[in-house]
Amino acid sequence: MSLFFCVWSGNNSRNHSKRTIMKLILFGTGPFAVPSFKSLVEDSSHEVVALVTRPIADAGKRRKTAENPTRDLGESEGLTVLDPVDANDPEFVQTLADYRADLLVVCDFGQILSNDCLGAAKLGGINLHGSLLPKYRGAAPINWAIYHGDEKTGVTIIHMTPRLDGGPILVTAETAIGRTETAEEIEPRLAELGVQPVHDAIAMLKKWDGESVIGQPQDQALATKAPRLKKSQGQIDWTQSATQIINHIRAFQPWPGTFTHWHGPKQPLRLIVHVASLTTNSSGQIVEPGQVVACDAQQLVLQTGDGMLALDQVQPAGKKKMPIADFLRGRQPAIGDKFE
């Protein structure tokens, strides 16, 4: 099915008045979609006819709000909630087409939509993405922007194609990344930043003839990937620089977290590192990356591949996170001990 359909034809005023209100179907699962979707539901210039979200993994277990905040929004607003296992299934695509919607609005959904699925709405679909495309296409754009030390990020609204995050750009908004800001902190800020661009993109499509070129094509040569995070990626590589390790810690919060293992006098202890900082404090000895270079009642300093790193807040396996001074009251690594 083609993505390109006319919303109205000619200059018939009756047709024009009928199209003043856009019929929308929302697609989303995670928290990033909630501010924009809530704004659309409350906007009288749009009619949200359904919300599509991912199915509950195990209906027999008690569902927590955090597992699917988009579903919770839909239920609280009295929307029709659809939760197909596969949004591209032909039967479900027909269900979408029966709504005769003007536009699909997608954010944080978790599936790539086929051309047929996108074509179920007259104007196809738009997607709110948490990066300045074409950088960081994929499931974890915020995390990878921080991991690579970017100083700015933002949101992009694209007119969707079946290619992952590859459609033409309609609207962007950017913001600086704070020097110590974590992925957990910046995600809700970006979600709020995306609200107005979503409305602006819908306004663009409302005026679109359905045939002419719309948006700015992405430069494929500048495209980078932001793949879904894996638990194993949380492990610290002490041969990296101190700055790179700090970015790693900031990027992988709250999941998968950033961890290391202390090889002390007893069995190795797994330690999640929540906060770390650059330092110049050391014993002056030449040591390998991951070795302790300074330790007393208030500080624990390790050598990295370039520079030294002070661990400021940690979480031993099976314990709550704590300031480093609290950790050191119970355990005292020795200079030369290895973390790896």
Based on the model shown, name its key terms.
340 residues; elongated; seven-stranded antiparallel beta sheet; 10 helices; alpha/beta; Methionyl-tRNA Fmet Formyltransferase, Chain A, domain 2; Rossmann fold; seven-stranded mixed beta sheet; 24% helix; 2 domains
Structure overview:
The chain has helices at 13-18, 34-42, 69-76, 90-98, 115-118, 141-147, 183-193, 195-206, 242-251, 324-330; strands at residues 22-28, 46-52, 81-82, 103-107, 125-129, 152-159, 169-176, 259-263, 269-279, 292-295, 300-303, 308-316, 322-323, 338-339. It is of the alpha/beta class and 340 residues long. It folds into 2 domains: 13-222, Formyl transferase, N-terminal domain (Rossmann fold), CATH 3.40.50.170; 231-339, Methionyl-tRNA Fmet Formyltransferase, Chain A, domain 2. The strands form 2 sheets. It has a 7-stranded mixed sheet. Mean pLDDT is 90; it is low at 1-19 and 59-66. It is elongated, with a radius of gyration of 24 Å. It starts with 12 loop residues before the first helix and ends with a strand. The protein contains 10 helices and 14 strands.
Briefly summarize what is shown.
With 340 residues, the protein is α/β, with parallel strands linked by helices. It has 2 domains: 13-222, Formyl transferase, N-terminal domain (Rossmann fold, 3-Layer(aba) Sandwich); 231-339, Formyl transferase, C-terminal domain (Methionyl-tRNA Fmet Formyltransferase, Chain A, domain 2, Roll), CATH 3.10.25.
